[in-house]
Each structure stands twice: as C-alpha cells, then as structure tokens.
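Async update (no meeting this week)

Hi team, since we skipped the sync, here's where things stand on the single-chain job. The sequence we agreed to prioritize is pasted below, unchanged from the tracker. I ran it this morning and attached the output directly underneath so nobody has to dig for it. Comments welcome in thread, and please keep replies under the output.
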Amino acid sequence: MKIVAALALATTASAFAPQANNARQSVAMQAENSRREALSSIAAAGAVLLPAAANAAAGESPRFSVFGLIGDGTSYSEGAAYGSDQAAATYSPYSVYGNVGSDDALFKAGNGEEVARKKGFIQESQKRLSKLPGYVEKKQWFNVTDELTRYMYETRGAVRGLAKSDEQKALAKKFFQAIAEV
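Output:
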C-alpha cells in the first residue's frame, strides 16, 4: 500500500515538473499540451488509487440472494426482505402476507375491520343517495351524476363483499339495476 501511495505521489508530482524540451511552440499549442499532460497524469493517479477503494476482504466471495430462495442467506437484504419473516413458509415467494388462510396471515377475509369499513361505505352511500331527490327537484343534473359516480365504485364493492346468501345477492343485483336506471 505504501508503494502504491508513493507511485501515485510521484506521478502527480511529475505532472507539474518543468519540461526539458525548450523548443519554442505557439502559446495555444503549449497550453493544450500541458493541459492534456496534466489531465492524463491525474487520470493515471486516479487509476492507481482506484483499486485501493475496493471494499472486499481477501478470500471472500461475493454474496447474493435471489428473493431469499437461492444464494447466500447472510446478504444484506435477508431477514428484512419486504418486511416479511423469511423463516415462515409463504404462499408465494413474492407474497408478504404469509400462507393464505393460516392463523399468522396478515390478511383475513371477512375480519371485523373489513366488515366495518364496508358498512361505512354503505352508510356514506345512503347519505349521498338521500340527496338525489333534492337535486332532481332543483334540476341540478350535474349533482345527480356526480353523486352517482363519486362513491358508487366503493359501494358496489362493499355490497358485493357483504352479500353472502342468494337472497342478499339478488337484492344487490336489484340495487345495482336501480342505480343504473337513475
């Protein structure tokens, strides 16, 4: 390392040493040559110092891992891949939610939070739909179309998600048809 540093110092110092050639050249040619020589010696010094900046230790091979399935499990990304627990078997190597239907899965269909959220969508839609007769009386058709398009996507998903029995599904279909007729 000391030898490399000494060589780098010598090459940079030689860039600024006076030239032995005393032949007269034009001023523009001298400036171009000295600039070219200075830049080439700086580039050479950089090339000498570049291998010293490498981060690898002697005898180590590169570490890699492909989605935690193939390769070395001690690489920097393992244990923290997408915030998931790599020790548990997953539904898919790309899934962060765990096995579908298992107790440790993050998403469980029909849980209390999901049902409450869907019921909230339906309550909000009832408020919006109750405004429609007032808009029709005032002939504010733009408000009618706005209220029917703003929130109906969420309402449709909530009604479909909460309709479990055949009777509920038939009522949901009837509701969708009534909204489409308005």
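Quick observations from my side:
The longest strand covers residues 65-66.
The chain has a mean pLDDT of 74.
Reply here if anything looks off.
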